[in-house]
Amino acid sequence: MDATGSTEKNNPANDDVQEAAVLIEQIGPTRRLIMNRPKSRNALSEEMMAALALELERANQDDVTRLIVIAANGPVFCAGHNLKELTAHRADKDGGKAYFAMIMETCSKLMQQIVNCPKLVIAEVQGTATAAGCQLVATCDLAITVNEANFCTPGVNIGLFCSTPMVALTRNVPRKQAMEMLVTGEEIDSHTAKAYGIVNRVVPKDYLRLVVDRYCEEIAKKSPAALKFGKEIFYQQVELPLSDAYDLAAKTMTENMMAADAEEGIEAFLEKRKPEWPCGS
């Protein structure tokens, strides 16, 4: 396992330096980004968001990587923003306003980076996800969770409506259920989260890694070009009126048909053989 930016553990001079905020594990075409601040419940601190953004970009640029998994160490997947970090800036001359704006903008850019990444991003949720942590799960293309995980947007309980988590939530969850989560701040269990559309599957804890790996293995067999076309148009068309969505989909389908992967895939299907993707495997 490679921890990008990690210290040399055998060097005494580095004994007091923390491991990287995000650890990296590459197995075949799958790259795991493992949030590694369990003591702070993997909060989306300034450090954590910068590390995730950097590693997402590196994974995106890596030709070997086909899928990206966001996972976490510890009992909590992600507890949202680091409130201690935010509160410390109340002492700034502007009461923290500039810092708060920077953190919220950084988080918004991170979520959009996940959506705009042409590679599939899967959340591997081993524990509770709250506030911006719930937002992170909802933002990923797919999400697999364990039975024990809970989800909530509890900002309203501390006088802070979860406005940015709301963006991801309302794009996954039916309107009334999303509003209920936002205005009550109450936790929902993993099976309710599945029913609401926040996660795809709920599995026993011992099988989480196995199930996510099987998803990655299956998706990695598909055409890289088709997946890139598909993810991009999925998020574009879902916000459009019906006629505009079909116009966009028809244009994208035509471009996809002209791609080498589509030519090879159709020929392989007709010839009853496995395709060999020209755009990579």
UniProtKB/TrEMBL annotation:
Keywords: Fatty acid metabolism, Lipid metabolism, Transit peptide. GO terms for biological process: fatty acid metabolic process. One of its GO terms (molecular function) is hydro-lyase activity. InterPro entries: ClpP/crotonase-like_dom_sf, Enoyl-CoA_hydra/iso, Enoyl-CoA_hydra_C, Mitochondrial_ECH-domain. May play a role in fatty acid biosynthesis and insulin sensitivity. It comes from the Bacteria. SUPFAM superfamilies: ClpP/crotonase. This is Enoyl-CoA hydratase domain-containing protein 3, mitochondrial. Belongs to the enoyl-CoA hydratase/isomerase family. Pfam families: ECH_1.
